[in-house]
Amino acid sequence: MQRPDEPRAHLQRLLRHDWLSPLQWRRRLLFWCGAVLVAVAAIVFAKLSMLAYRTFVGFTAGRAWLPLLITPAVFALLAWLTSGALKATRGSGIPQAIAALQIEDENFRHRLLSLRIAAGKMALTLAGLLAGASIGREGPTVHVGAGLLYSLGKRFGFAEPAAAGRFVLAGAAAGLAAAFNTPLAGVVFAIEEMAGAFEHRMSGIILTAVIIAGIVSLGLLGNYAYFGTVTTALPLGQSWLAVLLCGVSCGLAGGLFARIILLDGGLLSRIAKVRMRWPIPFAAACGLALAIVGIASAGSVYGTGYDQARAILQQAATAPGAGFGGYKFLANIVSYWAGIPGGIFSPALAVGAGLGHNIAHLLPGSPTAAVVLLGMAGYLAGVTQAPLTSAIISMELTDNQAMIIPILATCLIARGSSALFCHTPVYRAFAQRLVAEYEQESKMAPRESERPSPQGTILQ
To answer: What is the pTM of this model?
Structure first.
Protein backbone atom coordinates (compact mmCIF):
# COMPACT_ATOMS: atom_id res chain seq x y z
CA MET A 1 0.00 0.00 0.00
CA GLN A 2 1.46 3.37 -1.07
CA ARG A 3 2.00 5.90 1.68
CA PRO A 4 0.60 9.43 1.11
CA ASP A 5 4.02 11.08 1.12
CA GLU A 6 5.60 8.71 -1.45
CA PRO A 7 4.45 10.60 -4.62
CA ARG A 8 5.82 13.84 -3.22
CA ALA A 9 9.15 12.21 -2.37
CA HIS A 10 9.31 10.69 -5.86
CA LEU A 11 8.64 14.11 -7.42
CA GLN A 12 11.38 15.67 -5.30
CA ARG A 13 13.84 12.98 -6.44
CA LEU A 14 12.93 13.69 -10.05
CA LEU A 15 13.44 17.41 -9.60
CA ARG A 16 16.86 16.76 -8.09
CA HIS A 17 17.88 14.80 -11.20
CA ASP A 18 20.33 16.66 -13.43
CA TRP A 19 17.94 16.82 -16.39
CA LEU A 20 15.07 18.25 -14.37
CA SER A 21 16.90 20.36 -11.81
CA PRO A 22 16.10 24.09 -12.25
CA LEU A 23 19.63 24.93 -11.06
CA GLN A 24 21.21 22.68 -13.68
CA TRP A 25 19.02 24.13 -16.43
CA ARG A 26 19.97 27.64 -15.38
CA ARG A 27 23.63 26.66 -15.65
CA ARG A 28 23.08 25.06 -19.05
CA LEU A 29 21.34 28.16 -20.37
CA LEU A 30 24.24 30.28 -19.14
CA PHE A 31 26.72 27.99 -20.92
CA TRP A 32 24.73 28.17 -24.14
CA CYS A 33 24.31 31.93 -24.03
CA GLY A 34 27.96 32.33 -23.08
CA ALA A 35 29.09 30.13 -25.98
CA VAL A 36 27.12 32.31 -28.39
CA LEU A 37 28.72 35.40 -26.87
CA VAL A 38 32.21 33.90 -27.15
CA ALA A 39 31.63 32.94 -30.80
CA VAL A 40 30.40 36.42 -31.73
CA ALA A 41 33.35 38.01 -29.90
CA ALA A 42 35.78 35.66 -31.69
CA ILE A 43 34.34 36.49 -35.11
CA VAL A 44 34.38 40.24 -34.48
CA PHE A 45 37.93 39.96 -33.13
CA ALA A 46 39.02 38.02 -36.23
CA LYS A 47 37.54 40.62 -38.58
CA LEU A 48 39.11 43.51 -36.67
CA SER A 49 42.47 41.72 -36.50
CA MET A 50 42.52 41.32 -40.26
CA LEU A 51 41.50 44.96 -40.70
CA ALA A 52 44.26 46.12 -38.34
CA TYR A 53 46.92 44.14 -40.23
CA ARG A 54 45.65 45.31 -43.62
CA THR A 55 45.73 48.90 -42.36
CA PHE A 56 49.37 48.49 -41.33
CA VAL A 57 50.28 46.94 -44.69
CA GLY A 58 48.52 49.69 -46.62
CA PHE A 59 50.04 52.45 -44.53
CA THR A 60 53.60 51.14 -44.88
CA ALA A 61 53.36 50.14 -48.57
CA GLY A 62 56.27 51.73 -50.39
CA ARG A 63 57.63 53.07 -47.10
CA ALA A 64 59.62 50.20 -45.64
CA TRP A 65 61.36 52.60 -43.25
CA LEU A 66 58.13 53.64 -41.53
CA PRO A 67 57.97 50.67 -39.11
CA LEU A 68 61.34 51.86 -37.74
CA LEU A 69 59.38 54.75 -36.23
CA ILE A 70 55.91 53.31 -35.65
CA THR A 71 56.62 49.85 -34.24
CA PRO A 72 59.04 50.84 -31.43
CA ALA A 73 56.74 53.68 -30.33
CA VAL A 74 53.64 51.46 -30.18
CA PHE A 75 55.52 48.63 -28.45
CA ALA A 76 56.71 51.09 -25.79
CA LEU A 77 53.18 52.44 -25.37
CA LEU A 78 51.76 48.93 -24.97
CA ALA A 79 54.44 48.05 -22.42
CA TRP A 80 53.50 51.15 -20.42
CA LEU A 81 49.75 50.43 -20.64
CA THR A 82 50.24 46.87 -19.42
CA SER A 83 52.47 47.77 -16.51
CA GLY A 84 49.55 48.47 -14.15
CA ALA A 85 45.94 47.34 -13.98
CA LEU A 86 46.12 45.71 -17.42
CA LYS A 87 49.17 43.58 -16.62
CA ALA A 88 47.12 40.39 -17.03
CA THR A 89 46.61 41.21 -20.73
CA ARG A 90 50.26 40.53 -21.54
CA GLY A 91 51.29 37.62 -23.69
CA SER A 92 49.16 34.88 -25.15
CA GLY A 93 46.37 34.65 -22.57
CA ILE A 94 46.33 30.85 -22.46
CA PRO A 95 48.66 30.76 -19.40
CA GLN A 96 46.28 33.12 -17.59
CA ALA A 97 43.36 30.76 -18.23
CA ILE A 98 45.40 27.73 -17.10
CA ALA A 99 46.50 29.51 -13.92
CA ALA A 100 42.90 30.53 -13.18
CA LEU A 101 41.93 26.86 -13.32
CA GLN A 102 44.69 25.88 -10.92
CA ILE A 103 44.07 28.57 -8.29
CA GLU A 104 40.51 28.70 -6.98
CA ASP A 105 40.88 32.08 -5.33
CA GLU A 106 38.13 34.46 -6.50
CA ASN A 107 40.32 37.59 -6.36
CA PHE A 108 43.08 35.88 -8.35
CA ARG A 109 40.63 34.71 -11.00
CA HIS A 110 38.99 38.14 -11.22
CA ARG A 111 42.39 39.74 -11.69
CA LEU A 112 43.12 37.47 -14.66
CA LEU A 113 39.68 37.06 -16.24
CA SER A 114 37.58 40.15 -15.54
CA LEU A 115 35.61 41.81 -18.33
CA ARG A 116 38.04 44.73 -18.20
CA ILE A 117 40.91 42.35 -18.89
CA ALA A 118 38.97 40.68 -21.74
CA ALA A 119 38.19 44.03 -23.37
CA GLY A 120 41.75 45.24 -22.83
CA LYS A 121 43.15 42.04 -24.32
CA MET A 122 41.23 42.55 -27.54
CA ALA A 123 41.95 46.26 -27.84
CA LEU A 124 45.68 46.02 -27.10
CA THR A 125 46.18 43.00 -29.37
CA LEU A 126 44.57 44.99 -32.19
CA ALA A 127 46.91 47.89 -31.40
CA GLY A 128 49.88 45.54 -31.69
CA LEU A 129 48.69 44.31 -35.10
CA LEU A 130 48.24 47.92 -36.21
CA ALA A 131 51.93 48.36 -35.48
CA GLY A 132 52.95 45.21 -37.36
CA ALA A 133 53.61 42.99 -34.33
CA SER A 134 54.23 39.33 -35.17
CA ILE A 135 51.45 38.05 -32.92
CA GLY A 136 48.32 35.93 -33.21
CA ARG A 137 44.76 36.40 -32.06
CA GLU A 138 43.93 32.78 -31.14
CA GLY A 139 45.56 32.78 -27.69
CA PRO A 140 43.89 36.10 -26.85
CA THR A 141 40.57 34.66 -28.06
CA VAL A 142 40.98 31.77 -25.60
CA HIS A 143 41.67 34.33 -22.86
CA VAL A 144 38.63 36.39 -23.85
CA GLY A 145 36.42 33.30 -24.05
CA ALA A 146 37.47 32.13 -20.59
CA GLY A 147 36.92 35.63 -19.20
CA LEU A 148 33.49 36.08 -20.76
CA LEU A 149 32.09 32.78 -19.52
CA TYR A 150 33.70 33.17 -16.08
CA SER A 151 32.23 36.66 -15.68
CA LEU A 152 28.82 35.46 -16.88
CA GLY A 153 28.78 32.55 -14.43
CA LYS A 154 29.89 34.75 -11.57
CA ARG A 155 27.26 37.38 -12.39
CA PHE A 156 24.46 34.81 -12.20
CA GLY A 157 25.50 33.08 -9.00
CA PHE A 158 28.02 30.40 -10.07
CA ALA A 159 30.96 31.81 -8.12
CA GLU A 160 31.68 28.59 -6.20
CA PRO A 161 35.27 27.60 -7.16
CA ALA A 162 34.52 24.29 -8.88
CA ALA A 163 31.56 25.73 -10.80
CA ALA A 164 33.55 28.80 -11.84
CA GLY A 165 36.36 26.54 -13.08
CA ARG A 166 33.95 24.76 -15.41
CA PHE A 167 32.94 28.09 -16.92
CA VAL A 168 36.61 29.01 -17.45
CA LEU A 169 37.38 25.68 -19.14
CA ALA A 170 34.31 25.73 -21.40
CA GLY A 171 34.95 29.37 -22.37
CA ALA A 172 38.56 28.60 -23.31
CA ALA A 173 37.53 25.61 -25.46
CA ALA A 174 34.78 27.60 -27.18
CA GLY A 175 37.25 30.44 -27.80
CA LEU A 176 39.74 28.24 -29.64
CA ALA A 177 37.01 26.44 -31.58
CA ALA A 178 35.49 29.73 -32.75
CA ALA A 179 38.85 31.38 -33.48
CA PHE A 180 39.96 28.69 -35.96
CA ASN A 181 36.55 27.13 -36.79
CA THR A 182 37.99 23.88 -35.38
CA PRO A 183 35.45 22.33 -32.98
CA LEU A 184 37.29 19.05 -32.42
CA ALA A 185 40.54 20.88 -31.69
CA GLY A 186 38.69 23.01 -29.14
CA VAL A 187 37.63 19.92 -27.19
CA VAL A 188 41.07 18.28 -27.36
CA PHE A 189 42.74 21.56 -26.40
CA ALA A 190 40.58 21.77 -23.27
CA ILE A 191 41.55 18.24 -22.27
CA GLU A 192 45.24 18.21 -23.25
CA GLU A 193 46.40 21.76 -22.64
CA MET A 194 43.96 23.51 -20.32
CA ALA A 195 42.76 20.93 -17.80
CA GLY A 196 45.58 18.40 -17.92
CA ALA A 197 42.97 15.82 -16.92
CA PHE A 198 39.42 15.05 -17.96
CA GLU A 199 36.54 15.10 -15.51
CA HIS A 200 33.73 12.88 -16.86
CA ARG A 201 30.90 15.31 -16.14
CA MET A 202 32.78 18.05 -17.98
CA SER A 203 32.46 16.23 -21.32
CA GLY A 204 28.93 17.44 -21.99
CA ILE A 205 29.69 20.98 -20.85
CA ILE A 206 32.72 21.36 -23.11
CA LEU A 207 31.06 19.67 -26.07
CA THR A 208 27.95 21.81 -25.74
CA ALA A 209 29.94 25.04 -25.54
CA VAL A 210 32.07 24.07 -28.54
CA ILE A 211 29.07 22.92 -30.60
CA ILE A 212 27.17 26.15 -30.00
CA ALA A 213 30.24 28.29 -30.74
CA GLY A 214 30.73 26.27 -33.92
CA ILE A 215 27.10 26.68 -34.99
CA VAL A 216 27.30 30.45 -34.54
CA SER A 217 30.56 30.55 -36.51
CA LEU A 218 29.06 28.43 -39.29
CA GLY A 219 25.93 30.56 -39.38
CA LEU A 220 27.84 33.82 -39.69
CA LEU A 221 30.87 32.78 -41.75
CA GLY A 222 29.83 29.56 -43.45
CA ASN A 223 31.64 26.22 -43.51
CA TYR A 224 35.25 27.06 -44.28
CA ALA A 225 38.74 25.75 -43.64
CA TYR A 226 41.10 28.32 -42.11
CA PHE A 227 43.83 27.76 -44.70
CA GLY A 228 41.51 26.51 -47.43
CA THR A 229 41.10 22.89 -48.50
CA VAL A 230 44.49 21.25 -49.05
CA THR A 231 44.06 18.05 -51.05
CA THR A 232 47.36 16.30 -50.58
CA ALA A 233 48.56 12.99 -49.24
CA LEU A 234 51.85 11.39 -48.30
CA PRO A 235 52.33 7.96 -49.92
CA LEU A 236 54.16 5.19 -48.12
CA GLY A 237 57.82 4.76 -48.88
CA GLN A 238 60.55 7.32 -49.27
CA SER A 239 58.15 10.21 -48.72
CA TRP A 240 57.76 9.16 -45.09
CA LEU A 241 61.27 10.48 -44.55
CA ALA A 242 59.43 13.79 -44.34
CA VAL A 243 57.77 12.63 -41.11
CA LEU A 244 61.13 12.02 -39.47
CA LEU A 245 62.77 15.19 -40.84
CA CYS A 246 59.85 17.47 -39.95
CA GLY A 247 59.33 15.84 -36.58
CA VAL A 248 62.94 16.20 -35.48
CA SER A 249 63.91 19.54 -37.04
CA CYS A 250 60.64 21.38 -36.46
CA GLY A 251 60.30 19.91 -32.99
CA LEU A 252 63.80 21.10 -32.07
CA ALA A 253 63.08 24.54 -33.52
CA GLY A 254 59.80 24.75 -31.61
CA GLY A 255 61.45 23.73 -28.36
CA LEU A 256 64.19 26.29 -28.91
CA PHE A 257 61.61 29.00 -29.49
CA ALA A 258 59.76 28.06 -26.31
CA ARG A 259 63.00 28.09 -24.31
CA ILE A 260 63.95 31.50 -25.71
CA ILE A 261 60.64 33.23 -24.97
CA LEU A 262 60.65 31.79 -21.45
CA LEU A 263 63.93 33.67 -20.85
CA ASP A 264 65.12 30.99 -18.49
CA GLY A 265 68.77 30.18 -17.85
CA GLY A 266 72.16 31.69 -18.68
CA LEU A 267 72.17 34.66 -21.02
CA LEU A 268 68.38 34.48 -21.30
CA SER A 269 68.02 35.15 -17.58
CA ARG A 270 70.15 38.27 -17.97
CA ILE A 271 67.87 39.47 -20.75
CA ALA A 272 64.90 38.85 -18.44
CA LYS A 273 66.51 41.04 -15.77
CA VAL A 274 67.05 43.85 -18.28
CA ARG A 275 63.40 43.64 -19.33
CA MET A 276 62.25 43.68 -15.73
CA ARG A 277 64.36 46.74 -14.93
CA TRP A 278 63.59 48.78 -18.05
CA PRO A 279 60.38 47.31 -19.54
CA ILE A 280 59.40 50.28 -21.70
CA PRO A 281 62.81 50.91 -23.36
CA PHE A 282 63.20 47.15 -23.76
CA ALA A 283 59.84 46.93 -25.57
CA ALA A 284 60.87 49.80 -27.83
CA ALA A 285 64.12 47.98 -28.65
CA CYS A 286 62.11 44.85 -29.51
CA GLY A 287 59.94 46.94 -31.81
CA LEU A 288 63.02 48.33 -33.52
CA ALA A 289 64.44 44.80 -33.92
CA LEU A 290 61.16 43.67 -35.47
CA ALA A 291 61.25 46.57 -37.93
CA ILE A 292 64.81 45.65 -38.94
CA VAL A 293 63.80 42.01 -39.50
CA GLY A 294 60.82 43.33 -41.46
CA ILE A 295 63.07 45.28 -43.81
CA ALA A 296 65.38 42.28 -44.25
CA SER A 297 62.41 40.02 -45.09
CA ALA A 298 60.72 42.48 -47.46
CA GLY A 299 57.90 42.98 -44.98
CA SER A 300 56.79 39.33 -44.86
CA VAL A 301 57.11 38.87 -41.09
CA TYR A 302 54.54 41.37 -39.85
CA GLY A 303 51.17 40.28 -38.49
CA THR A 304 49.87 36.80 -37.79
CA GLY A 305 51.56 35.16 -40.78
CA TYR A 306 48.24 33.79 -42.04
CA ASP A 307 48.61 35.13 -45.61
CA GLN A 308 52.15 33.83 -45.94
CA ALA A 309 51.36 30.37 -44.53
CA ARG A 310 48.33 30.03 -46.79
CA ALA A 311 50.35 31.09 -49.85
CA ILE A 312 53.05 28.52 -49.03
CA LEU A 313 50.47 25.76 -48.51
CA GLN A 314 48.66 26.59 -51.72
CA GLN A 315 52.00 27.05 -53.55
CA ALA A 316 50.89 30.45 -54.74
CA ALA A 317 53.10 32.84 -56.69
CA THR A 318 52.94 35.29 -53.77
CA ALA A 319 54.57 32.83 -51.35
CA PRO A 320 57.57 34.29 -49.48
CA GLY A 321 61.12 33.15 -50.14
CA ALA A 322 63.24 30.42 -48.58
CA GLY A 323 64.31 32.58 -45.63
CA PHE A 324 60.77 33.25 -44.41
CA GLY A 325 60.76 30.57 -41.70
CA GLY A 326 63.93 31.94 -40.08
CA TYR A 327 62.85 35.56 -40.34
CA LYS A 328 59.42 34.81 -38.86
CA PHE A 329 61.09 32.84 -36.06
CA LEU A 330 63.07 35.94 -35.08
CA ALA A 331 60.06 38.22 -35.46
CA ASN A 332 58.00 36.03 -33.13
CA ILE A 333 60.74 36.09 -30.50
CA VAL A 334 61.16 39.86 -30.33
CA SER A 335 57.39 40.40 -30.43
CA TYR A 336 56.86 38.07 -27.46
CA TRP A 337 59.87 39.45 -25.59
CA ALA A 338 58.28 42.90 -25.75
CA GLY A 339 55.66 41.70 -23.27
CA ILE A 340 52.77 43.04 -25.33
CA PRO A 341 49.41 41.23 -25.66
CA GLY A 342 49.35 38.68 -28.46
CA GLY A 343 49.41 34.95 -29.10
CA ILE A 344 51.80 32.52 -30.77
CA PHE A 345 49.46 30.01 -32.49
CA SER A 346 49.17 31.59 -35.96
CA PRO A 347 52.77 32.90 -36.01
CA ALA A 348 53.96 29.40 -35.07
CA LEU A 349 52.00 27.87 -37.93
CA ALA A 350 53.61 30.41 -40.27
CA VAL A 351 57.12 29.50 -39.08
CA GLY A 352 56.28 25.81 -39.49
CA ALA A 353 55.06 26.43 -43.05
CA GLY A 354 58.33 28.17 -43.89
CA LEU A 355 60.45 25.41 -42.37
CA GLY A 356 58.35 22.72 -44.03
CA HIS A 357 58.81 24.42 -47.39
CA ASN A 358 62.57 24.36 -46.90
CA ILE A 359 62.47 20.67 -45.97
CA ALA A 360 60.39 19.93 -49.08
CA HIS A 361 63.33 21.06 -51.23
CA LEU A 362 65.38 18.24 -49.66
CA LEU A 363 62.72 15.70 -50.67
CA PRO A 364 61.95 16.37 -54.35
CA GLY A 365 59.92 13.17 -54.65
CA SER A 366 57.46 14.17 -51.92
CA PRO A 367 54.38 16.38 -52.39
CA THR A 368 55.38 19.90 -51.32
CA ALA A 369 52.04 20.75 -49.73
CA ALA A 370 52.16 17.57 -47.63
CA VAL A 371 55.64 18.36 -46.30
CA VAL A 372 54.62 21.96 -45.55
CA LEU A 373 51.62 20.69 -43.59
CA LEU A 374 53.88 18.35 -41.61
CA GLY A 375 56.21 21.26 -40.89
CA MET A 376 53.33 23.36 -39.57
CA ALA A 377 52.05 20.58 -37.32
CA GLY A 378 55.53 19.60 -36.13
CA TYR A 379 56.60 23.12 -35.25
CA LEU A 380 53.35 23.87 -33.43
CA ALA A 381 53.72 20.62 -31.47
CA GLY A 382 57.30 21.58 -30.67
CA VAL A 383 56.28 25.00 -29.35
CA THR A 384 53.25 23.89 -27.33
CA GLN A 385 54.25 20.26 -26.59
CA ALA A 386 50.58 19.39 -27.14
CA PRO A 387 50.79 16.80 -29.95
CA LEU A 388 47.10 15.86 -30.11
CA THR A 389 45.91 19.47 -30.28
CA SER A 390 48.56 20.29 -32.88
CA ALA A 391 47.67 17.29 -35.04
CA ILE A 392 43.92 17.82 -34.96
CA ILE A 393 44.12 21.57 -35.46
CA SER A 394 46.40 21.09 -38.48
CA MET A 395 43.96 18.58 -39.95
CA GLU A 396 40.91 20.81 -39.37
CA LEU A 397 42.64 23.96 -40.62
CA THR A 398 43.17 22.37 -44.02
CA ASP A 399 40.12 20.08 -44.19
CA ASN A 400 42.45 17.15 -44.82
CA GLN A 401 41.83 13.74 -43.25
CA ALA A 402 44.20 11.85 -45.56
CA MET A 403 47.23 13.27 -43.71
CA ILE A 404 46.11 12.47 -40.16
CA ILE A 405 48.45 9.48 -39.60
CA PRO A 406 51.62 11.25 -40.88
CA ILE A 407 50.64 14.38 -38.94
CA LEU A 408 50.15 12.43 -35.71
CA ALA A 409 53.50 10.69 -36.15
CA THR A 410 55.23 14.00 -36.85
CA CYS A 411 53.69 15.65 -33.80
CA LEU A 412 54.72 12.81 -31.49
CA ILE A 413 58.31 12.97 -32.75
CA ALA A 414 58.27 16.77 -32.46
CA ARG A 415 57.01 16.57 -28.88
CA GLY A 416 59.94 14.36 -27.90
CA SER A 417 62.47 16.50 -29.78
CA SER A 418 61.14 19.72 -28.24
CA ALA A 419 61.70 18.42 -24.71
CA LEU A 420 65.46 18.39 -25.36
CA PHE A 421 65.38 22.21 -25.25
CA CYS A 422 62.31 22.94 -23.13
CA HIS A 423 61.38 20.45 -20.41
CA THR A 424 58.06 22.07 -19.45
CA PRO A 425 55.37 22.95 -22.03
CA VAL A 426 55.54 26.68 -22.62
CA TYR A 427 51.96 27.53 -21.59
CA ARG A 428 52.32 25.47 -18.42
CA ALA A 429 55.62 27.16 -17.63
CA PHE A 430 54.10 30.64 -17.91
CA ALA A 431 51.07 29.53 -15.90
CA GLN A 432 53.36 28.20 -13.16
CA ARG A 433 54.99 31.61 -12.93
CA LEU A 434 51.61 33.26 -12.41
CA VAL A 435 50.78 30.71 -9.73
CA ALA A 436 54.17 31.25 -8.06
CA GLU A 437 53.59 35.03 -8.03
CA TYR A 438 50.21 34.49 -6.40
CA GLU A 439 51.68 32.17 -3.77
CA GLN A 440 54.46 34.63 -3.04
CA GLU A 441 51.93 37.45 -2.60
CA SER A 442 49.86 35.24 -0.32
CA LYS A 443 52.88 34.53 1.89
CA MET A 444 53.78 38.22 2.10
CA ALA A 445 50.25 39.36 2.93
CA PRO A 446 49.62 39.43 6.71
CA ARG A 447 47.19 36.88 8.01
CA GLU A 448 43.85 38.22 9.15
CA SER A 449 44.49 37.10 12.73
CA GLU A 450 47.69 39.14 12.90
CA ARG A 451 46.32 42.42 11.55
CA PRO A 452 46.07 45.17 14.19
CA SER A 453 42.58 46.31 15.08
CA PRO A 454 41.63 50.00 14.92
CA GLN A 455 42.20 50.12 18.70
CA GLY A 456 45.75 48.82 18.31
CA THR A 457 45.05 45.35 19.69
CA ILE A 458 45.50 42.06 17.88
CA LEU A 459 42.36 40.59 16.35
CA GLN A 460 41.58 37.19 17.80
So the answer is: 0.87
